[in-house]
């Protein structure tokens, strides 16, 4: 039998807030039901306010395409409207944030349940003798009726495996049971900015613009 050696204890000199890959990051969570218009509005925010858009769903779909060992599991979860284990999604998000040269991120469609939220906020990222925790500046919540969201998803026509009525119903159920509690959590901390997402795209963006006004990029 070999000798058992304890893992070295690394004592962090400092625990910082929202430091990642040597930069101070601003994170906005973009939440709302399936088809509420999160991706559409994130594209507008990127263009006007210089954020980088990280869609958790897009990262998971890219992971399937890449032939990763998690691909089949992720695809099955998406087809069932279920939530992929936190560690998989958080690793994809963190890697994308570290790789990016930007320091302002829209995290779209995550956290999807309380476990996602706690895992993301409690994860301690260590580099050198520093440790960091990341929490959102605020949560942008797109509020829309299921009737309208269903109409939009059935008309989206992007060939997604989950834009069929059977999976859409499951996604709505997951949203109500698992994702709304996340929004309630941040609401209790006064961090939620709610948008009426049933309005036409340009009108929704007018409301979004008012919220992002403090983030206008500096002129070069
Ligand atoms: N305000 C709006 N009014 C009408 N149609 C909209 C509006 N916003 C988005 N759409 C359309 O609805 C569909 C879904 O929008 P989008 O993909 O932005 O939603 P999402 O919330 O990101 O969805 P998912 O969570 O499924 O990825 C798209 O076809 C989009 O063009
Ligand atoms: O954090 C996440 C984000 C997404 N999923 C799974 O992907 C699909 C599609 O997500 P969209 O945001 O609509 O692109 C979603 O229904 C989940 O199955 C996830 O598990 N975790």
Rg estimate, integer Å: 19 Å
Order of helices and strands: EEEEHEHHHEHEEEHHEH
State the total count of DSSP E strands. Answer: 10
**Reading side by side through the largest sheet, how are the strands ordered?**
5-6-4-9-10
Beta percentage is 15-25%
Quick structural gist:
Its main location: cytoplasm. The chain has 220 residues and is of the alpha/beta class.
Q: How would you characterize the overall build of this protein?
A:
The protein is an alpha/beta fold. 45% of the residues lie in helices and 19% in strands. It contains 8 helices and 10 strands. A 5-stranded parallel β-sheet has the order 5-6-4-9-10, sandwiched between helices. Helix 1 crosses helix 8 and helix 2 crosses helix 3. The longest helix has 24 residues. The protein is globular. The site of adenosine-5'-triphosphate has 15 residues, from helix 1 and helix 8.
Compile the SSE list and pairings.
Elements: E1 14-17, E2 19-20, E3 23-24, E4 26-32, H1 38-49, E5 52-55, H2 56-65, H3 71-79, H4 86-99, E6 104-108, H5 114-122, E7 125-127, E8 130-133, E9 138-143, H6 146-154, H7 165-188, E10 192-196, H8 201-212
Parallel strand pairs: 1-8, 4-6, 4-9, 5-6, 9-10
Antiparallel strand pairs: 2-3, 7-8
Q: What distinguishing features does this structure have?
A:
binds adenosine-5'-triphosphate, single chain, 220 residues, binds the ligand O=c1ccn([C@@H]2O[C@H](COP(=O)(O)O)[C@@H](O)[C@H]2O)c(=O)[nH]1, 8 helices
């Amino acid at each position: 039998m070999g000798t058992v050696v304890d893992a070295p204890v690394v004592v962090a000199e400092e625990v910082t807030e929202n430091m990642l890959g040597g930069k101070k990051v601003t994170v906005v969570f973009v939440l709302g039901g399936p088809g509420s218009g999160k991706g559409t509005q994130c594209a507008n925010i990127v263009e006007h306010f210089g954020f980088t858009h990280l869609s958790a769903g897009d990262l998971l779909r890219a992971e399937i395409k890449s032939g990763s060992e998690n691909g089949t599991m992720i695809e099955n979860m998406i087809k069932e409207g279920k939530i992929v284990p936190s560690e998989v999604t958080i690793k994809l998000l963190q890697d994308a944030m570290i790789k990016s040269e930007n320091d302002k991120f829209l995290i779209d469609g995550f956290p999807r349940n309380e476990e996602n939220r706690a895992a993301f906020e409690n994860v301690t990222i260590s580099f050198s003798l520093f440790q960091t925790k990341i929490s959102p500046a605020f949560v942008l919540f797109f509020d829309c009726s299921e009737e309208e969201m269903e109409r939009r998803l059935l008309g989206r026509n992007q060939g997604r495996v989950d834009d069929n009525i059977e999976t859409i119903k499951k996604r709505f159920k997951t949203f109500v049971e698992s994702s709304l509690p996340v929004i309630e959590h941040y609401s209790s901390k006064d961090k939620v900015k709610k948008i009426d997402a049933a309005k036409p795209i340009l009108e929704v963006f007018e409301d979004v613009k008012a919220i992002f006004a403090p983030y206008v990029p500096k002129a070069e």
